[in-house]
Amino acid sequence: EIELTQSPGTLSLSPGERATLSCRVSQSLPNNKLAWYQKKAGQPPRLLIYGASTRATGIPDRFSGSGSGTDFTLTITRLEPEDSAVYYCQQYGSFLLSFGGGTKVQIK
Amino acid sequence: QAHLVQSGADVKKPGSSVKVSCQTSGDTFSNFALNWVRQAPGQGLEWMGRIIPILGMTNYAQKLQGRITITADRSTNTFYMELSSLRSDDTAVYYCGKSSGTYEPTDSWGQGSLITVSS
Lengths: 108, 119
Fold this sequence. Notes:
The complex is a heterodimer. By secondary structure, chain A is mostly beta strands.
């Protein structure tokens, strides 16, 4: 199975700042089949980004994804209190899918 | 986006089995995949497996092979995830999620089902 490593484990930032989240994949993903999800307590995951860089429907342009091959990044600009959540990357380019361990974003 | 409704919370004994259901709306047997993902308390998301009805194919996480079975009932647009030989570390919220194809992200989710394994 493909392994995904996310860093850092936790980010503590102030409103208005920029968050940069990293996801490293154990093998190159064909066609950059990498997604980012936002997970809040008591809610199902919310798809933010797919295909490494395409925003899902209704996702504000403060969220952007980049990267290819084995290194991917989720950037959240102009942080808002509602962005407090755990963010997961997921690869869906193989028959067996997998998630990274998550990055917790705390808004001070 | 599809609407997915899951079965309710349940408590199971260690060693028993649980079957969680996920009913979908619309034409759900076209080209799509139905995934199962769980989150144990204080832990991250774990992909468990999926079914691709149009291909009649299932894929399971290696860690759960032999204990998990995902099935579909076309007559009721309902999907099932059965997990056997339950252990305390299977206590988690279980989610179903729909992808629009074999190599597509999951863009619609059920509300989650809390399964507690306790003696």
